[in-house]
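seq/struct pair 1
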Amino acid sequence: MLPLVLVLVLAACGTAPKRGPAPAAAAPKVVDVAPEDPARANEVLMRALGLVGTPYRYGGNTPAGGFDCSGLVGYVFLDAAKVYLPRTTREIAKFKAHVPPDDRLAAGDLVLFSDKGTVFHVGIYVGEGRFVHAPSTGGTVRLDRIDGPYWGRHYAGARRILY
């Protein structure tokens, strides 16, 4: 009897439990709010949208040379709103700025994305659940949905610079 129980116990340990797909992180439920300074927000949005199609370049921070994500954000805010931002995404995440509550985003807010608690990407919210950003090598500055399959899983909050 003991050998049979031992065989059953060992057999049970040798099989992995059946698992379904990992639950996806909840996509942000973004609510659009009016920017506090609509004229400056509009300048930021027009400048950012005008750069859609510019090539991605790691470390890039000019239209002629291309952009990485933080280079794009820094260039747009300096050019359109005369606001100097830190150079890296990590520094931008720590930047003293207003944090909008409950994903109530205004056009011109910076949106942050993280993985395992480390912020790795930044973009500019344009409204209606979309943001402009410079996503990756080989790509271009583009418009994406904040609640898309990839970005929705990594959304980490926002910073309001224009207030």
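seq/struct pair 2
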Amino acid sequence: MDGFLHLESGDIFKGKWVTTSPAKDIDGEIVFFTGMTGYQEVLTDPSYKDQILVFTYPLIGNYGINEEDFESSKPHVAGVVVFEANDNISHYRAKYSLKDYLQKWNIPLLAHIDTRAVVKKIRNQGSMPASLSTSNSPKEISLSKDQKVEKVSEPTSQWFGEKGDSHVVLMDFGNKKSILTSLLKRNCQVTVVPYDTNFKEIQSLKPDGILLSNGPGDPKELKHVLPTIKKLLLHYPTLGICLGHQLAALALGADTKKLLFGHRGANHPIKDQLNQRVFMSSQNHSYVVDEESLKGTGFKVRYKNLHDQSIEGLTHTNLPVQTVQFHPEANPGPGEGDYIFDEFLNKVNQYSGRVTQYA
């Protein structure tokens, strides 16, 4: 059955439904991912909440979906657009086809779309509202103003690990499983708390360090949690990842801005200006920290994106705080930034037991 992708620009692309056609139009911000593999991890990354995702690689689904590589318990995208969806899976770990997995969660999959043309539109005009529809009649698209983080953050605290070397409180703005795994494999005890947990509650947990997780949406929609984050930055060694990086910057007075079409892929070159190392990274974000706004915040730029020179990470001159815009835990993507977790825990050990205001 024919299906149609509508862009806010007025462009309409015709394709074929792989899953059952949706009963009503599916609206969302349209974005694209440039990786050749890793679609399972991408679909279950909470940072893609309510987005319509275009895969630039022309063949998606050939190795199926397994039971091990989920980044959360369910997919979060609003819909998926591909050139070709392969239903003939070929991998020893595969349990489901891409079609069956998305059908289970009622997420529409539209194929035989000229994804190259769609991506060119996004690159030229920016990420924009879009709609998946059974009709080719022109339509107006309006996106929900719902706050996305509260949809993906766990509503109650969770505990992982037993008597670890360090106790890390992970503030859950939509965290990926791989972040938790990265801490547990380094013998950490981890408490995952809801994104709006207040400072006194976190303090009562007696953490050695704080990790601000990734998550979806505009960081400025979370202004109400910035006072808590500022207190945490002033009292504990802290690592911010992706959205957590942006929130840490905002909490200490910096500003953020939206990129034209964002960074989403597993092949973005990053330069670590501290040790002059260049490595590839996994990315998923629309917003970046504005470098001009860093003056007076105490933050210094450590990492830069070599494609567009945008900020990819910060360190603080007075506080034991470091942040990264990319995903050091990868999944999907290269794991060359994994050393960030080791640096963070070294800082945690260095400041262990010093629950005091640093600045």
